[in-house]
Design goal:
about 425 residues, Aspartate Aminotransferase, domain 1, Aspartate Aminotransferase, domain 2, seven-stranded mixed sheet, four-stranded mixed sheet, 14 helices, binds pyridoxal-5'-phosphate
Amino acid sequence: MTDKNAILFERAQRTTPGGVNSPVRAFRQVGGTPRFIERAEGAHMWDANGGRYIDYINSWGPTIVGHAHPEVVAAVQAACATGLSFGAPTEAEIEMAEEITRLMPSIEEVRLVSSGTEASMSAIRLARGATGRAKIIKFDGCYHGHADSLLVKAGSGLLTFNTPSSAGVPKEITAHTIVLDFNAPDQLERAFETHGAAIACVIVEPVAGNMNLVKPTPEFLSTMRRLCSAHGALLIFDEVMCGFRVALGGAQALYGITPDLTVLGKVIGGGMPLAAFGGRREIMQHLSPIGAVYQAGTLSGNPVAVAAGLATLRIIERPGFYENLGSATARLAQGLEAEARAAGVEFCADSIGGMFGFYFCANRPLRVADVAASDIERFKRFFHLMLARGIYLAPSAYEAGFVSAAHDAACIDETLVAARAAFAQLAH
Ligand SMILES: Cc1ncc(COP(=O)(O)O)c(C=O)c1O
């Protein structure tokens, strides 16, 4: 049979670097041919060969209500019919801001943008502008998009200044970025002791999803809240991934920690390019046109994206939505653990809301080094064994997985049957 995915990949590489428009799509970490998707509906996607997959990537998080949900599609179609972009304000943007501020009460004012990268970058500029300080703290393994100052590797020793993790980023640009370990409150204490008066903000994924799924310890989040308040630094929760994913009010509601600023994306656009950052009014008022911190965007608050986002938010607000999503996801994670145990494969899994992680190691990781120490070769084999059985997992051991409301019991059952066979093969 002709492999259309392979033909398309070959063709794509002639005009697009690596054949993809975002690196992880290229399957570099697992090897093999990326699937070129022709269509998706509910929990399933179909590739160029007509292969059907149960999709656990869900566009890396946004399609929480399932692919091509009829209500979201209808909202998008209606918005398209009245114009694609105006570069002028619309009532729907007010509605979106009202929804966000209602669902996340720490956000008094919000600005809409087009990507999570743009939202985090703008939130950091705002934090620096509002505090008049330069330094920022981020955590190793957390991803906040690809703004220059955030592309940093941890230095060799704690609190040494760090080196850019990408070519093209001058070291002067990352000189103000301090990188600490996730779940290490003692490191936060020391960083604030040394640099407290110079720190503009701490930015964190409160539930990390870019080093596989790594949950915070309650002490980690409460220490960062306390230290930021004590030293006049702003706490930024990057909830691009976990916002509206782990709970309706995001990780901040689940853990009871109030950030000063929040970054949102993914689910709020329901699969369209929409992201946002917001927080306390007095901080947000530093933004132009009223304040001195510049920030703008031609397509910010795009009417089609806002329509998709509003339709998605209306669905996730329905009673029982998170209970059902959380129990399907927990059943998947627990089922995977049970299958691995039965096959005698060292493995563990975890979930929170509609997000899950699985790891080829004995204990759930607390930081990126733990994920790096897991059996990545086994992960790669498992990934391909599952893909061959129609289960589409993230093609990297450093990514979380996502379940949507369209993943019914039959989908989870089918996945666990596939996992049983895959673990049995791995055990040999
Ligand atoms: C936590 C987090 N922040 C920011 C981003 C960047 O968002 P985008 O890819 O929309 O630029 C991502 C993307 O995966 C993310 O997971």
